[in-house]
Design brief:
This protein is of the alpha/beta class. Helices cover 35% and strands 15% of the residues. It is globular and about 65 Å long. The protein binds pyridoxal-5'-phosphate.
């Protein structure tokens, strides 16, 4: 039987993610549109985003925060192209985004001393194999497999290399110890439900030291350049963005940050997201057709919650039929208006992915579970 109760908000996409509860375009009425981002007022807004982000995430005072072009990808590319090449590199890749960084390092930057440490979807590479005498590039949370690193114990305090971390689907929902990392990147459209296209780049003093003492042998386009004449371009970290940001997106990012503060800051954001994961785990526990893609409960993401279908009817299908069946489940729910964008990522094993970040209400996920059961039954019954 088709369920009756519906999620109030059907947005469970893993990016752009659900706007915060209660968001409406009214949140943007004070946006500094039509004004220069370099005006006093424009710079003040940008600075406010940086300052509130610093406070919320507990970024140490001696770390820099900059807003950079091209979203998280832009921030990561900037970091990799500016910092890598001095030391050997260990790259951890256990899903699509980590694999993307590994491809850049090996095929575009063409560094020779690279160890790509991989794992299948659902697992993590051996973190204790990482050599901290080298630079290490990794994602905190693998958005397309729903596997996150279990904490920061494996990161050496006395490392020689830099810890370069793509944390876009982790920050604001997980305790990411920025003080134990050298580069942290993210974009606004994830956990706080902001808008796309702007990247945030956080640099440790050691990363800044690398930038000012090492010049990579390849050319860097303006959009990647963090130094001039061997010195850090300080302005980037003081609201003088490299190029023009959207003041509408800046306003929206501020709205997300203010909301986060109003509910209790990072501890409450993490609590909300973990509660979402717990709700999904409870449903998975009582549902025989579905299981987590992440094999180890200790590595399970509380944001991009990836599920595999384990029903013998489904697993007996050919790979393409499996992908089609999972997509049908997602399409049925989209047509019903109860869940948008929940098919697994195109390169991940066929299944479902539910975003459980802090803007998602647990009650909306709980309202969705009967619909998932219904849609799966419909698709299976049609065969
Ligand atoms: C782990 C990870 N890295 C990078 C990206 C790309 O982010 P953006 O679109 O902000 O560049 C994503 C997007 O989902 C992601 O999840």
């Amino acid at each position: 039987m088709k369920p009756i109760a519906r999620p109030r908000n059907p947005c469970f996409s893993s990016g752009p993610c659900a706007k915060r509860p209660g968001w409406s375009p009214d949140a943007l009425t004070q946006a500094l549109v039509g004004r220069s981002h370099r005006s006093k007022a424009g710079r003040a807004r940008i600075k406010e985003v940086m300052d509130r982000s610093r406070a919320l995430l507990g970024v140490p005072d001696d770390y820099r925060i900059g807003i950079v072009p091209a979203s998280d990808t832009g921030a990561m590319e900037m970091a990799m192209w500016s910092l890598l090449g001095l030391l050997g590199v260990d790259v951890l890749a256990w899903e699509s985004f980590g694999q993307g960084w590994a491809t850049d390092i090996t095929k575009q930057l063409r560094l020779s001393d690279v160890r790509v440490m991989t794992a299948e979807y659902g697992s993590l590479p051996e973190l204790n194999q990482v050599d901290w005498k080298r630079d290490v590039v990794f994602t905190w949370n693998g958005t397309t497999s729903g596997v996150r690193v279990p904490g920061a114990d494996w990161i050496a305090e006395d490392r020689r290399g830099l810890a370069i971390c793509d944390a876009t689907s982790a920050v604001f929902a997980m305790n990411v110890p920025v003080d134990k990392l050298d580069v942290v990147t993210y974009s606004w459209q994830k956990v706080l439900g902001g808008e796309g296209q702007h990247g945030v780049l956080i640099l440790s003093p050691r990363a800044v030291e690398r930038l000012t003492t090492y010049q990579p042998p390849w050319p860097l386009p303006k959009i990647f350049r963090l130094t001039k004449g061997g010195a850090l371009i300080d302005g980037i970290f003081q609201a003088d963005t490299i190029n023009t940001p959207s003041m509408l997106c800046v306003e929206d990012a501020l709205d997300g940050l203010v909301w986060a503060e109003s509910i209790g800051g990072l501890p409450e954001l993490v609590r909300r997201s973990e509660a979402n994961l717990a709700a999904v785990a409870s449903w998975v526990g009582r549902t025989d057709w579905v299981d987590f893609l992440a094999a180890d409960p200790g590595n399970r993401s509380c944001t991009s919650i990836c599920l595999k279908i384990v029903d013998p009817w489904f697993t007996a299908l050919a790979v393409e039929e499996r992908a089609q069946a999972a997509k049908k489940v997602a399409s049925l729910l989209e047509a019903e208006g109860v869940a948008f964008d929940i098919a697994s990522y195109r390169e991940a094993p066929p299944g479902l992915r539910l975003w459980g970040g802090a803007t998602v209400e647990r009650t909306d996920l709980e309202a969705l579970f009967p619909w998932l059961d219904w849609a799966y039954g419909e698709v299976k019954g049609q065969q």
